Amino acid sequence: MKNFIVDKILILGIGLIGGSFAKAIRKKNIAQQIFAYDQDLDAIDLASKQKIIDGFAPIDNNVVDFDLIVIACPLKDYQQIFQQLANHLNIKHHKQNLVIDLGSIKNFDKKLLKQIPNFIGCHPIAGSDKSGYLHADSDLFFQKKFIICNYHNLDSVKIVKEIIKNIGANIIELSPSSHDEIYALTSHLPQFLSFLCAEFSPKKHHHEFINNAFRLDKSNPEIWSDIFKLNEKNLEFFYQDFFNNLSDFKEKLKSFTTSNQLLSVNNSFLQELTNLNIEDLKQDFSQIFFRLLVVLSYLKIPKIKDYLDYSGSGFADFTSIASLCQLNHLDLDSLIKKNLPEINKIFDKFFE
To answer: What are the structural domains of the chain?
Structure first.
């Protein structure tokens, strides 16, 4: 007979992350029963029909019956969720139910954390530009980093670590403040810059490499707006470095001579340019080159080299365009000079 890690799990929110977590738990037989709460009843219905969850469970007095409660809802809902859970988890008469979250911010208000004593902050470094349960994947977390923060109960953290290991993810422990600084730089800023520069991006390119470099442009702004707001201080600090670097590139373009002098990047950031050549850049070159300089300005931020080991697929996709620096510089020179008026127009519009 299967020895489950936990008997009953309640997942609050079954979008991409919560739905993927539910599917991974079911696939690996980690829990005997999985219930979910979500305002999207179509997602609940589909997950039930697929036998991923055993049913719908609201946040009421019955939450004390769950061994593990997983918060996988938008960050803007956390305060309300914490308050609701605190109202129903009567720790004087019941075991301290284990509560974890899967969000992108970890340095929570201490008053918020006090409402749920047995809380462990978690952050899987996995995702997609797509959202919703329809895109949930049982293997989303496989061989991905899974951060753990904010814990005091060693027995509880052993349970969480066992679950993470069983779904095939790699555990990293960080302090909440370190987590938010690291991911402001390696995750939140690349996404912020992708949104900021989206109007200057190619809408569709014939080469997969170029399209992949602009993948973050298509992410859901509603999900990310809360992350930017809650990690605003760290984000603004690193953005200032980026802005100064991009301003330098703008000035250098005024006296452009050769790309060999303009473009330089640490080899550790370069990926293989499979089947990509200079001819592939002629389509939308001004937009592609502007994004290249945006990424190079980002990669010049000093702390990036210290945080590389924590980065995920979003960082890899965003920075992949830096690999264009490997192309023949004489060919690049020709394209830059030909498109320089248009490139400068993009810069002028960005700095308006």
So the answer is: 6-174 (3.40.50.720), 180-350 (no CATH)
Tokens of 250: 């703008």
Cβ density class 10-47: b for 16+ within 10 Å, e for less: bbbbbbbbbbbbbbbbbeeebbebbbbbbeeeebbebb
Question: How many CB atoms lie under 10 A from the CB of residue 104?
Answer: 25
Which H/E stretch holds residue 323?
none
Classified as helix, coil or strand, 77 is: helix
Strand-pair category, 145-149 with 119-124: antiparallel
Phi-psi sector, 305: left (phi>0), alpha (psi -120 to 50), beta: alpha
Look at the chain and count its residues.
Answer: 352
Close Cβ partners of 307 (under 8 Å, ≥ 6 residues apart): 182, 185, 186
Sequence-separated (6 or more) residues with CB below 8 Å from residue 178:
none
pLDDT tens for residues 20-78? 999 999 999 999 999 999 999 999 999 999 999 999 999 998 999 999 999 999 999 99
pLDDT tens across 278-309, in order? 888 898 999 999 999 999 999 999 999 999 99
Residue 202: CB partners within 8 Å, gap ≥ 6? 210, 214, 283, 284, 287, 288
